[in-house]
Amino acid sequence: MQEPPFDPDAPFGQLLGGLVTLLRAPHAEDRVVSGLLEAMAARVAASPVLIEAGIENTWALDGDPLKGRLQARQVDAIRVAPGATTLELLAMARALADDQAPIPSTARVRVKLVPDPLPLHVSGQRLALTDATTGPVPRARTGDQLAEMIEGILRELEKAIGRQQWHAALHDAQAALRALPAVQEDSRRTFTIALRRLLSRPVLETLIEQAYRVPEERARTAEVLRAGGLAAAELMLEALKQSDTVGPRGFLVDSLAGMPEALPVILPLIKSLRPAEARLGAELLGRIGLPDAVPALVAQASHPDERVRLAVVQALGHYRDKATVEPLRHALGHDLPMIRAEAGRSLAARGSAAIAMPLLAALDAERDPAVWEQLLSAIAGIDAPEAASVLLRLALRKPGLLERRSTLERKQLAVVQALAAAGTDPARQVLARIAAKGKGAVQEAAQRALDG
User: What pLDDT sits at residue 132?
Assistant: First the structure.
């Protein structure tokens, strides 16, 4: 009997997330949809389920695709009562999978939407605030001075947007963002929703265009963009995919790299048929550093494009997951010198003593002088006695039958230099042993390094 392509014992939220993702795909297999619905109905047969979107924390979703989808549809929470039918669950999931369809709410599947405190729309080329007399910015509680200050900042932001004063709007948005964490939770939630509504897609597009022209505002713009959630992430990816080079749009990469909740929209990039997009995906996945990205990166470690392979190896260096070790060790034998060097650095960055011997083997086999020195520095930088001891053996080794003494001495001096640059306690201990047992120029160099 064929196993279902999902875990039937998974939590309700995970099953719903899988169903929504499946329904957003071009072709959803009926058998799988039915299986997911039956499993979901079984979860709520006897007990209720509550799923919250966490709208006020859009920059910290830990890559949860369901929460990202809930936020995209402005769903605050879903309460599923015992006895909810598969038809009710399917209607809700289909609405969540759609970008525009109304989301139904029944007696057993209650969907709470986020209120729209800031009705913002685009009129021609101008941004207009509708019905400004209704007070689109929420009012702070009397006596809460910090909340009153944020309320004032948001009102100034609203005015700046209406007047198209984008420099002022950017600074107001950043000021509000930095003040929000200090207010009470209920006020923070309300003001965060208000800020997000002000930072609509047309506003963010304009702020991005401004950052292209004014380089000193790029870091500030990246900070504000991170508050825009998945909608902002999709906008930034669209901008980055317009060209094979990042150039002045590098601040968008910095912004995306600080948005773990953007993982669902970044992950498909690594599989792109365009090498430039695959490289971008690898860089972003490496900098975000979420464990869910490791399988996708490992799968592309043998990508046919050398630049993509290099980007993947660099990205894997950001992870300490054991699954990254084997592809990195395999990359130590790559034909391209820069990939061998990067693989060595990525392995050494793990700081594991167990990595020292594979790196030493790669060092012995390396014939490119520049890569040899980079691998040497990588080994010396591992703060572990095992790593230092393998270099001690090389520093005190006698020349073989077919090895020139001058060649060996040059390598041994390089070992001393790498140990001195590393500055770790194991490195200093090895330098002391070389100074005590070494010969000639190597011994003198070790002593000079210790004398500092």
Answer: 38
